[in-house]
Amino acid sequence: MPGKKFPLSVGIKTGKYEVVLVTDADCVPASEYWIDKMQQAFDTDTEIVLGYGPYHKKKGLLNRMIRWETFHTALQYFSYALAGIPYMGVGRNLSYKKEIFYRHKGFTAHNNIPSGDDDLFINMAATKKNTKINLDPAAFTLSEPARSWAEWIKQKHRHYSTGKFYKPLHNFLLGLYSFSYFTYYPLLAAVILFYNWQRAFIVFGIRFLLQAIILYPCMKKLQEKNLYPWLLFIDIGMFFYYLIFAVALVKKPRPAWK
Length: 258
Description:
Radius of gyration: 19 Å
Largest sheet: 4 strands, mixed
Strand order of the largest sheet: 1-4-3-5
Order of helices and strands: HEEHEHEHHEEHHHH
Helix content: 40-55%
CATH class: Alpha Beta
Number of helices: 9
Number of strands: 6
Strand content: 5-15%
Shape: globular
């Protein structure tokens, strides 16, 4: 198997206990209670626990964009899980039982793809009844962010190249959301230029106000409040984000990665 799926499979099979808790080599627990807090989320029916893996806070636009995208992605997969449609998790902070790993034959359904040991496995195995989320800050893990725009873009291309293997319903819902985000600002500009700029700004104001009201408690919960003053600029930046990574949705995944 390309990537880390084979060594991860060996580690899971030779592990002593029933609950598997994974993170990445460049991650550190946000507290000494990480293992305990993630394990506490399990009960009789729970087989998968989705955790949050933010990046270290540093100066600069790149760091803000990386942390916003991470927060934005987490907001999506946590919300979908709460709505009974879990579709992914991140390998920086993820836990599941060996039983569900064996039941789905590990990573064999997608062992030809270098990545996907986290999101593709969860997309295949997670259900409304067997998945829970953990928003306890003591259960977070922290990662080192990419040091350059090129490095970050490369990482995101790899992630989006696996997203097309999600279940059709998940791809439809996520694609619809991305399409609405991608088309919003061009349509807003068209209305301002060719129709009625006053109405355009009313729509813009209502949307931004709703975003500000909804996102603040979410940022507070996930300890990303210092991104809040940058909300408008980052929201505009997301248009270019979807523009850049649209190619990755149709690009074939690389056969190997480091």
